[in-house]
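Form 12-C: Joint structure prediction
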Amino acid sequence: MREINVSEVVQAVSRLCVDANYNLGDDLNQALDRAAAVEESPTGKDIIEQLKENAAIAKRDQVPICQDTGLAVIFVDLGQDARVVGGNLNEAINEGVRQGYRDGFLRKSACHPFTRANTGDNTPAIIHYRLVDGDTLKITVAPKGGGSENMSKVVMLKPADGVAGIKEQVVEWVRQAGGNPCPPTIVGVGIGGNFEKSALLAKEALLREVGSLNPDPELQSLEADLLEAVNNLGVGPQGLGGRVTSFAVHVKMLPCHIASLPLAINIQCHAARHKEAVL
Amino acid sequence: MENIIRLTPPLSDEAVASLKSGDRVLITGTIYTGRDAAHKRLVDLLDKGEELPIPLAGEIIYFVGPTPAKPGKAIGSAGPTTSYRMDSYSPRLLAQGLKGMIGKGGRSLEVRAAIKEHKGIYFAATGGAGALLAQRIKKAEVVAYEDLGPEAIRRIEVEDFPVVVINDIHGNDLYEQGVIPYKKD
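Section 2 - Result
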């Protein structure tokens, strides 16, 4: 059994928190370039240029792309032949978040739900564990801002609503969200599973590279239909009108109960931040 | 491209009345930051009839919670936060003389009515452009509610801070009107 010391986890999480918040992924930079080419609205074009410049400044000066450096959402893929030693894995991840948000001058956005008192170090992180084959530990840090996270929902559709019902819900939800989630967005859609699984599927869908195709042909075609429909809304960059409301719609799907058709929608702003490391 | 309008607060009724939805504006001068928790405290003070820690007459509040400033910088990244969360508080502040608000995203009908009634103005800055917008902020100082951390009220000095008029005193709304030409059935 391969051993992985928690000190490596602390360092990796800390580094990934900072890297994700400072350096926009290549897929998003390319998506901004494509958006600049197809956007027809002068205001929309101007906004896309601002976002490109913003990403360049953040990278050059090593400062956060957006002031909302998010709650730290962390996916851990733990190989079943690996063993974590030297301490508690949860605590190591939270310590990494603590260090990364402190040393990287990132905003601490975690607070008590009632008193709104800030926890002061952006912990606790939201950690999702997945047990996988192999003897490595993969950590994905995906800081998620509040503005786009607030534009999320889970709806338990009737089986009779079918694909048409799913499309109607997604498109209407993106319309209502308007400029709030900082478009151009990525729309994460989770279909099936149950109540809580659909939400996690929608979140996981956001981690896929923008511009990549869904490996499932059925979902690939659904994603294309949904993207066309949301961009036909005219919401556009920042909701001020234009062709590019979303860069992509990503769908993940699982079987569900014979009585149910769970649907979750999780919107991601244009600053789609996620970085990963394998230990 | 429309003409660019330059504004320096405090704003007069006349200056606000001349602004139209869609106008691009560059703001230079002193403005205040405030978001969710600070708004709640300001309105709680008004409820109790107590004095506010900042002046409101003619002033602009920017809905922002910046990242901590790196050494040598005036402020960290500082783009707008979503405005609808301030909707339940903004009419009270407009009634007290607040003139301008900077945020992102649509406002409630109540806020839009208060903007008309009290001659206010709602601007949007580009959400998620926090690194770019921070370059237009030259000074920042916490003036109230330091315990709120990123949500503390700061007095900031801005130079050519770029915004667009969303809601004007004539009842226009750029979010509603802007999408119409680009909507396809």
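Section 3 - Comments
Chain B has one domain: 23-182. The longest strand of chain B covers residues 153-167.
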